[in-house]
């Protein structure tokens, strides 16, 4: 009986807790360009990293194909700036110190797995 009551209490308390709210201590923004395919950025711990990718033609879309969630928590999906000639952006929260990489591929809209990417961007993130 005591065990059942303990599990019930734990279940109730677990349901009542809210997810921890993320409050960045600052923001670092980086804009990637078509000309430079490999980039690096240093970001402090518990900061927001906003990445803007190069602009694309309407028939193509950027995809995030490598992301280590131990280091970076993705806070937004790709967002269009709404400005002609500007690329889409996405944001991450830096979780723990270390070094990680992000890889983006530019593929045709409605990409099948066999389709080869037409461009790529690699970003090394050093979290201090």
In short:
The chain is mostly beta strands.
What is the level-2 CATH architecture name? Sandwich
Sheet/helix structural class: mainly beta
Cα-based radius of gyration, to the nearest Å: 19 Å
Helix content range of the residues, please? 10-25%
| Number of distinct helices | 1
Kindly state the mean pLDDT as a whole number?
85
CATH class: Mainly Beta
CATH topology value = Immunoglobulin-like
The outline comes out as globular
Describe the largest sheet: 4 strands, mixed
> How many domains make up the 3D coordinates?
1
User: Which strand order spans the largest sheet, edge to edge or round the barrel?
Assistant: 1-3-6-5
Which secondary structure elements does this structure contain, and how are they paired or packed?
Layout: H1 2-16, E1 27-31, E2 38-43, E3 48-52, E4 60-66, E5 72-74, E6 89-94, E7 98-108, E8 119-127
Q: What would you say this structure looks like, in words?
A:
This protein is mainly beta. The chain has a single domain (27-109, 118-127), classed as Immunoglobulin-like. Helix content is 12%, strand content 41%. It contains one helix and eight strands; from the N terminus they run αββββββββ. It has one helix spanning 2-16, and strands spanning 27-31, 38-43, 48-52, 60-66, 72-74, 89-94, 98-108, 119-127. It has a four-stranded mixed sheet, with no helix packed on it. The protein is globular, with a radius of gyration of 19 Å.
Q: Which features does this protein show?
A:
128 residues; mainly beta; Immunoglobulin-like; four-stranded mixed β-sheet; 8 strands; disordered N terminus
């Amino acid at each position: 009986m005591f065990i059942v009551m303990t599990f019930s209490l734990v279940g109730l308390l677990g349901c009542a807790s809210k997810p921890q709210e993320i409050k960045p201590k600052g923001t670092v923004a980086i804009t990637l360009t078509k000309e430079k395919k490999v980039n690096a950025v240093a970001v402090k711990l518990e900061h927001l990293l906003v990445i803007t990718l190069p602009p694309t033609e309407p028939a193509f879309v950027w995809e995030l194909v490598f992301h280590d969630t131990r280091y970076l928590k993705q806070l937004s999906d790709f967002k269009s700036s709404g400005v002609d000639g500007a690329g889409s952006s996405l944001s991450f929260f830096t979780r723990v110190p270390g070094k990680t990489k992000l890889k983006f591929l530019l593929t045709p809209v409605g990409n099948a797995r066999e389709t080869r990417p037409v461009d790529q961007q690699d970003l090394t993130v050093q979290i201090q």
